[in-house]
Amino acid sequence: MTLDDAKYIREQVMNHNKWFEESIPMIASENLMSPLAKEVMISDFADRYAEGLPGKRYYQGNIFVDKVEIKATEIAKNLFKADFADVRPISGTVANMAVLFAFAQPGDVITTCALAQGAHISTCEFGAFGQRAVKSVNYPFSEEDMNIDVDGTIKLLKEVKPKVAQFGLSVFLFPPPLKELQDTFNEIGCLVWEDCAHVLGLIAGGQFHDPLREGVNIVSSSTHKTFPGPNHGMLLGANLTEEQEKELQKAVFPGVTSSHHLHAMASLAVTLAEMEVFAKEYAAQTCKNARQLGESLYELGIPVLCPDLGFTRSHAIAVDVSEFGGGKDCAKWLEDANIICNKNMLPRDTSAVRPSGLRLGAQEMTRLGMKESEMKEVAGFIARVVKGEDPAKVKEDVKAFKKQFDTIKFCFNEGEKAYAYHKLVP
Ligand code: DSN
Q1: What's the 222 CA to ligand 1 centre distance in angstroms?
Q2: 26 located within any domain
Q3: 321: domain range?
Q4: Residue 352: what pLDDT?
């Protein structure tokens, strides 16, 4: 590696920064970290190791790491009103693997949502479930409601009698009907697990639903989607036995991690502290923005799923662009106009590569201070592109629009530049 190589790489990263500074970010699984969360991310924590739990480490040098981890765990339990928290999983999928290692044996069956209906890839046989040799059986789904069909799910749960019933989606428009399923969970005596990665920041702010009060025993999550923290993971629990909590901790280490990522854990701790203060307002505005985006696109003649249900109760909407060339082409044209989103399968799609939909998230735009009136403008840009206007022309308007939104909100350093970086090139 030469200095020129290093400079080249740095230049590409800076190009990316600049591009995002001039773009509208709409990937539903992304967000912007706060300046304080970023600062601890590049601290000496990034260079260190810790294995095990605070006070019981296998390495010396963890005095301050332990203090941070104890604090992070305490705030996580307080923010989510959880009996248990583990802030060590290094991603959402690693958190999911820890749950599988703790509570499922090879050959077990776990009930889940289906991939085509928006489930996460880790629940598939070619994902983490398959790696643990766990079979998943899918709940029946109502395409009209974009949610699990309650009667069919009760029937399925009684037939399959899973040890664990799993919930959670990556196109997560409406909360799962957990309250309606609670009697069945009790009857069959299963653990209830929800992957809340997409909606964690909404739950922190009292929106969407409250899984640990609705019968969920284990929440697994990443911490960088609606929850605007680092690329990391987390586990929360309620009504678990002491033994089950220990099984989960053992599954995290030494099960699926060696050292966890201490810098990301510290960054998560900062974000948890910030969300204690800002989550309520941030989550409420995010949900309002998503609904407004759905409504504005719909009014402009772009089909958005579930108009009768208000399009969404989360940060995300699902848009059917089949009549405009499909999700693959529309997502590319939008990228050419500096609007960053992803193609997405909609129910009945059979190809993940050429799906008919787009998934659009409002959480990062909200983090940048956009409100309902800006959602109307954003919908206008999207409609122009998918209806065939030259993306290069729309891009100039997007760049001018985005200039007004380059600072970060809902954090202790509110108003600081969202895309700031250090200048250290030799
Ligand atoms: N693949 C991510 C998403 O975009 O939903 C989740 O890990």
Answers
A1: 10
A2: no
A3: 279-423
A4: 87
Number of H helices and E strands in the chain, helices first, is 14, 16
* pLDDT given at position 424: 63
Assess whether 264 and 284 both reside in one domain.
no
φ, ψ dihedrals at 208, nearest 5°: 70, -80
**Distance, CA of 323 to CA of 385 (rounded, Å):** 13
Query: What is the predicted pLDDT for the residue at 422?
Result: 63
Tally of domains in the chain: 2
pTM of the model: 0.97
- Which residue type occupies 15? N
Q: Which residues contact 170 (CB under 8 A, 6 or more apart)?
A: 28, 29, 118, 119, 120, 197, 198
Query: What stretches of 321-413 adopt beta strand conformation (E)?
Result: 339-340, 342-344, 357-361
Residues 80 and 124 both lie in one domain:
yes
Residues in the chain where the model's pLDDT stays below 50: none
- CATH classification at residue 146: 3.40.640.10
Cα of 62 from ligand 1 centre, angstroms: 32
- Chain centroid to CA 218: 16
Ligand 1 atom 2: residue of nearest CA = 29
**391-402 helix and 326-336 helix, angle to the nearest 10 degrees:** 60
CA of 28 to the centre of ligand 1 (A): 8
Q: Which atom of ligand 1 is nearest to the CA of 27?
A: 4
Using the mean position of ligand 1's atoms as its centre, give its distance from the Cα of residue 64 in Å: 32
Residue 25 lies in a domain: no
Which residues form the pocket of ligand 1, taking CB atoms under 6 Å from any ligand atom?
A: 29, 92, 120, 170
